[in-house]
Amino acid sequence: MRINHQTYIKASPEKVYATLTTAEGWNAWFTDHTALHLDENGKGKIILRWSNYGVGKENIEDGGDILAAVPNKWFSFQWSPGNKPTTVKFELRPSKDGTLLFLEEEGYTISPEDLTACVGCAVGWGEALVLLKMYLEFGIVCKEDYRF
Q1: Which residues contact 102 (CB under 8 A, 6 or more apart)?
Q2: Residue 108: Cβ-neighbour burial (10 angstroms; 0-12, 13-18, 19+)
């Protein structure tokens, strides 16, 4: 199964890429305490972290290998929201005075745990891209106080 989303962000591909490839960028719009190491070959590790997340105030950590990072064009990594790792790919395309951002996540099985994770991530990525857009276009930073 595959999740697909796309959005237009009125920010340059360089700015979008810089946000997707730094811990500070992720922590501004999606996570807190994320760690990201990216080497000169476009490989590395990403550990996404959320503190006191959701109604249960859970601490969540997930992440894995960064598979590809091509400046201002691609960023791809693995994480494990279900039974096994999935691959998340961001493609950036210049458009007008901004960036068309395409997100694809694939690798889910038909197990009950993966189906639940896939539905949750399909909704979650849609919401997350709105947060990314708000951050890059208006400078709105996601703070713990505003998370559900």
Answers
A1: 4, 5, 6, 89, 90, 91, 93
A2: buried
Is residue 119 within a helix (H) or strand (E), and if so which, with residue range? helix 112-138
- What distance in Å separates the CA atoms of residue 148 and residue 139, rounded to the nearest whole number? 20
Written as one letter, the residue type at 68 is: A
Tokens at 128, concatenated: 């997350």
C-beta neighbour count of 54 within 10 angstroms: 10
Identify which of 65, 7, 1, 6 has the alpha carbon closest to the alpha carbon of residue 38. 65
Which domains does the chain carry? 2-146 (3.30.530.20)
* pLDDT tens for each residue of the chain, 148 residues long: 999 999 999 999 999 999 999 999 999 999 999 999 999 999 999 999 999 888 899 999 999 999 999 999 999 999 999 999 999 999 999 999 999 999 999 999 999 999 999 999 999 999 999 999 999 999 998 655 554 4
With CA atoms as reference, report the closest residue to 100 among 128, 66, 72.
72
| 70 token code pair | 């091509």
